[in-house]
Amino acid sequence: MSAPTPFDALTPQPADVLLSLIALYRDDPRPKKLDLGVGVYRDDTGATPVMRAVKAAEGRLLETQGSKSYLGPEGDIRYTELLQPIVFGFGRAMPADTMVGVQTPGGTGALRLAAELVNAAQKNAKRPGAKVWLGTPTWPNHAPIMTSAGLTVATYRYYDQATQTILFDEMMSALKGADAGDVVLLHGCCHNPVGADLDQAQWRAVAEVVAERGLIPLIDLAYQGLGDGLEEDAAGARLVLDAAPDALVAYSCDKNFGLYRERVGALYAKGGTPARTALMRSNILLLARVNWSMPPDHGGALVRVILDDAGLTAEWRAELDAMRTRINQVRQALAAGDAWLAPLGHQRGMFSLLPLSPEQVGLLRRDHAVYMVGNGRANLAGLTLATVPQFIDALRAVR
Ligand code: LMR
Question: In angstroms, rounded to a whole number, what is the distance separating the alpha carbons of residues 116 and 203?
Answer without folding.
Answer: 26
